[in-house]
Structures are given as structure tokens and as C-alpha cells.
């Protein structure tokens, strides 16, 4: 969980930087309007002291609705987006499949769990990295296939950015996942090896598979 903890700590630091920047915008646009902190506070139901705390980046928490109202009162519009960086809290089910996969992999491979992407400020991590002479295999473990194309693309980007020579998606062998994989099979053939036995035989022998692969476990 060390990587996940670092990601959460970085998120807290990022929020501190962001709220200072937001506070500066709120203050600047209030001045543009010629409004006082009391004027803005009356408009959104907050005290002048709370408006001051926000403008100086000293409000550690505020609801999205309250911030949106504050922004509107000084002529701004709040726009929030969420962007995938990977990670998140790993559940017991995913850990189960990680261990099940590694139990079938040769000890010739060096193993690293939650390998961070070597890009400054990038919070993503690859679930498992297998290393041996001349190869670095990125392994992503998926307990539920939802949007196969999106999940594949996200894994490919992580594999590229960590410098992997191969990418393996380890998918829980549930009925729902098998159906989702069957439906996506036509788009995946050619670029991916979908033969679990062949891929696992290579890994058990300490060899890198010939192609990127999706396997069911």
C-alpha cells in the first residue's frame, strides 16, 4: 500500500497548492467587481472572515457546491474534471489474483508490485512488473472488465511509460469477464495473444511471451 499512500499524500499537497491558486482568483475577481468580502459573504451565506480564509488559501475544506456559489458571486464558473492516473485502493479480490498469477510465474523473474511510472508528478503505478535480462513485463490485474477498449488503452499507456517490452492483462476468469472478452475478441486478435496456457507456459519457463497478452485466471 506504500504507493497508494504516497498518492493520497500527494493529492493532499496538490489540494493545498490548488486552493491557494483558487483563492487568488477569487480575490482578484472580487477586486475587479469592486465588492467587499462582506458583500460576497452576504451573497453566498458566508462570513467575511470565511471569504478571507478562502482568498488566502486557508480554508482546508469546502464543498464543491459552496465553492461553485462563491465563484459565481465574483463572476467565475467552477469547472472540475477527474483524470485517470491508476492506483486507488486495492481490494482483497485483486490481491488474490495477483498472488494467483505470481504463483505460476518462474522465479527467474524479479518481481515488483505497484511499480511507479518514472515520470515526474505521475501518480500511476503498474500492478506488477516482471524483470529479467532484456525484458520488462508490465502486468495489470483486472477483476472486472467494464469498458474493454478503455481498460486496454489505459494499460497500454502505463506499459509504454514504464518502458515495458511486453504487457500482460490478467483478468479474473468470471463468467461476466469471459463474455466481455469474447465480445471484444475480434478487435483484439492479431495484436494480442489470448491463449492463457501458452502465455503462462512461457512465464513459467522464465521466458517473455512472444506478444502482449490477455489471460484469464
Structure notes:
By secondary structure, the chain is α/β, with parallel strands linked by helices. The chain has 8 helices and 5 strands; from the N terminus they run H-H-H-H-H-E-E-E-H-E-H-H-E. Strands 1-2-3-4-5 form a 5-stranded mixed β-sheet, sandwiched between helices. Helix 1 packs across helix 3 and helix 2 packs across helix 4. The longest helix has 32 residues. The chain starts with a helix and ends with a strand. The relative contact order is 0.10.
Report the sheet with the most strands, covering strand number, pairing sense and barrel closure. Answer: 5 strands, mixed
**Computed CA radius of gyration, to the nearest angstrom:** 24 Å
Question: What average pLDDT do the residues reach?
Answer: 88
Q: How far apart are the termini?
A: 23 Å
Relative helix content: 40-55%
Order of helical and strand elements: HHHHHEEEHEHHE
Uncertain runs: none
Enumerate the strands of the largest sheet in spatial order, edge to edge or round the barrel.
1-2-3-4-5
Quickly give the structural class. Answer: alpha/beta
Shape: elongated
Separate helix tally: 8
Report the strand count.
Answer: 5
Q: What portion of residues belong to β-strands?
A: 15-25%
Topology:
Blueprint: H1 2-33, H2 37-44, H3 48-55, H4 64-73, H5 92-102, E1 110-116, E2 125-132, E3 135-142, H6 148-162, E4 166-171, H7 175-188, H8 196-204, E5 213-216
Parallel strand pairs: 3-4, 4-5
Antiparallel strand pairs: 1-2, 2-3
Helix pairs in contact: 1-3, 2-3, 2-4
Amino acid at each position: 500500500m506504500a504507493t497508494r499512500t504516497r498518492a493520497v499524500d500527494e493529492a493532499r499537497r496538490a489540494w493545498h497548492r490548488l486552493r491557494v491558486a483558487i483563492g487568488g482568483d477569487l480575490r482578484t475577481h472580487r477586486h475587479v467587481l469592486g465588492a467587499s468580502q462582506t458583500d460576497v459573504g452576504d451573497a453566498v451565506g458566508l462570513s467575511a472572515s470565511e471569504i478571507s480564509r478562502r482568498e488566502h488559501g486557508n480554508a482546508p475544506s469546502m464543498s464543491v457546491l459552496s465553492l461553485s456559489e462563491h465563484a459565481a458571486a465574483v463572476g467565475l464558473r467552477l469547472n472540475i474534471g477527474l483524470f485517470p492516473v491508476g492506483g486507488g485502493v486495492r481490494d482483497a479480490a485483486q490481491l488474490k489474483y495477483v498472488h494467483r498469477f505470481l504463483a505460476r510465474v518462474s522465479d527467474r523473474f524479479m518481481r515488483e508490485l505497484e511499480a511507479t511510472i518514472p515520470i515526474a508528478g505521475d501518480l500511476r503505478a503498474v500492478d506488477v512488473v516482471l524483470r529479467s535480462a532484456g525484458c520488462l513485463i508490465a502486468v495489470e490485474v483486472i477483476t472486472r472488465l467494464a469498458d474493454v477498449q478503455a481498460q486496454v488503452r489505459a494499460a497500454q499507456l502505463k506499459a509504454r511509460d514504464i518502458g515495458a517490452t511486453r504487457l500482460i492483462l490478467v483478468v479474473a476468469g468470471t463468467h461476466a469477464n469471459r463474455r466481455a472478452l469474447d465480445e471484444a475478441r475480434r478487435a483484439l486478435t492479431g495484436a494480442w495473444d489470448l491463449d492463457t496456457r501458452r502465455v503462462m507456459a512461457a512465464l513459467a519457463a522464465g521466458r517473455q511471451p512472444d506478444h502482449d497478452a490477455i489471460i484469464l485466471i
